[in-house]
Amino acid sequence: MDPLVDPPGTDAVSRLRIRQVHRAASELRRGVPVILGGASPLVLLAAETADTAALAELEALTGGPPLLLLAPPRAAAILRVPMPREAEAAAIIIPKPLMDIEVYQSLSDPTLPQKKLRHRLEPGAAPASAAAALRLAKIGRLLPAVLAGPPPADLEARRTLHDLVAVVATDVLHYAEDEVASLRQVAAAKVPLNDAPNSEVVAFRSAGSALEHLAIVIGHPAEADAPLVRIHSECFTGDLLGSMRCDCGEQLRGAIRRIAEDGAGILLYLAQEGRGIGLVNKLRAYGLQDRGLDTMDANRALGWGADERNFLVGATMLRTMGISRIRLLTNNPDKMAAMVACGIDVVGREPHSFEPNGVNDEYLATKAGRFGHMLD
Q1: Which of 251, 235, 213, 247 is nearest to 350 (CA)?
Q2: What is the number of H-type helices and E-type strands within the chain?
Q3: Given 43, 140, 313, 339, which residue has the most CB atoms within 10 angstroms?
Q4: Is residue 293 part of a domain?
Q5: Catalytic site positions
Q6: What is the domain count for the chain?
Q7: pTM for the structure as a whole
């Protein structure tokens, strides 16, 4: 595919949608309020990056104290009440004496010292666009914890005065599909590897996104009937530092060796650190694991899902490279199901497990027991 030509299905409107979502997510990372438009508009501020000045700006825009929007598991832990099973977001009313940025942040992040509150917290009514608000924070790799209030009556004038970015809620909710639809190859180069000298690294990027996914192409997989493919999510701590908390580094290097021995294949290196929650949140999850939670519960305690990855990215990369029939090097049945659901013909599975090292024993047990990985 010509790297300067958008893939089929990408249009100027979807490019603008993706770009605007990224602008809004970047503003949240900077600690700046944004406008979430749609049927239930809101002014948003990420609790994680907010400061006193930004909080004052938000209150001036909304005319009152904000709601704290959280993922249901985090809200349930704070309020000590169960959340409806179907709930996608929850809201907490913060009493005026507790309207302090440190309170908001400690409520949002279970890894911070938890303040003893003298006033009772009450559940609020989550706005219809609350799920989109939390999704926008996740796109920015922030904790899904957002301060929100209604927009002012003179929204357009205030938006111009405060130089606020606006994004539509439905565009945020459709972001994952739009991002994949705009995925394209942007660069490729021969990169001989120690265990696979005949290798090429191919880079992919979505329109308007800074995320870059890589394909390590070994040999000539397009000439094979069903080349061996490994889908590997980036892991800074395991892949680069050699962390013993996971088996990612062993899986990465082992997959390269295995594919090279097979003669040809592809390792997809996806920018989906920590099962899609990002490096900083993965480190937070490690902190919770040190307190006794397993991988799945730690992610949920932070407000993230157990696995936030989008494997349609990998399937799209394979199709772009002319690969539609593969043998998958994996222990994860969800990856197999995802590839099949995305139209890739998975003709077989090759196991890819490594022995525990004394540190990652519980991690591997959780992968097998709770995620269903086939490690036997």
Answers
A1: 251
A2: 15, 14
A3: 43
A4: no
A5: 307, 309
A6: 2
A7: 0.91
